[in-house]
Backbone:
């Protein structure tokens, strides 16, 4: 029995095929996650299922399952993707602003822009907190980690405002963070649940009031 030797050419061709297969698999997984993100925004993380995603993507249940292995891993993948997009839309653009109030305001403004869109679709951070607030496990941990990462970034921006002398040096950054976050939660409740007009304007006014109460100059002043 003869064995055909593996030549450099055949090995290269094999590696190329494997590379294409891997790339295609990554693309397919990205499509599934994107579809899952859209579903979760409307029906929550708990509403996600392999079967529902198979229907939306036109794939078989086994095909969807092969990319995740479990419903829990699917939910965690959605949370990670949501966090990645949140950073790209809210955090990273704000980093181009100077340290201090300008950067903190950019973070809030970007957050507001995203929130105004999510009034119609839903925020996974908020809906996920409601779904998993009384549970333990990897999904809740992934959600909490994402929110705490964002909170840490906001807190750093607030501390930098103090270092720049744009907020009182003795103010509690955690308190300011709490009040800013409360504005976002109130906005979702008023705009999404109560359909109250003018909610976004009140949230912006509330943000300005928080900053001025802790020593910042009114908007538009030097």
Residues:
């Amino acid at each position: 029995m003869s064995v055909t030797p593996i030549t450099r050419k055949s090995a290269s061709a094999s590696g190329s095929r494997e590379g294409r297969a891997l790339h295609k698999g990554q693309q397919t997984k990205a499509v599934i996650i994107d579809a899952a993100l859209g579903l979760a925004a409307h029906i929550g993380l708990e509403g996600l299922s392999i079967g529902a995603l198979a229907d939306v993507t036109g794939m078989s249940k086994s095909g969807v399952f092969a990319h995740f292995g479990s419903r829990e891993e699917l939910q965690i993948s959605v949370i990670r993707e949501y966090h990645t997009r949140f950073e790209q839309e809210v955090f990273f653009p704000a980093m181009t602003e100077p340290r201090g109030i300008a950067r903190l305001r950019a973070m809030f403004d970007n957050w507001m822009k995203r929130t105004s869109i999510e009034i119609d679709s839903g925020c996974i951070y908020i809906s996920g907190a409601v779904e998993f607030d009384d549970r333990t496990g990897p999904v809740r941990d992934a959600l909490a980690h994402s929110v705490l990462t964002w909170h840490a970034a906001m807190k750093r921006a607030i501390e930098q405002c103090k270092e720049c002398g744009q907020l009182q040096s003795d103010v509690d950054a955690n308190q300011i963070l709490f009040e800013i976050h409360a504005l976002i939660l109130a906005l979702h409740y008023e705009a999404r649940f109560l359909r109250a007009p003018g909610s976004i304007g009140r949230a912006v006014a509330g943000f300005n009031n928080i900053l001025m109460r802790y020593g910042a100059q009114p908007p538009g002043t030097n």
User: Anything to note?
Assistant: The radius of gyration is 23 Å. The mean pLDDT is 87. Residues 8-43 form the longest helix (36 residues).
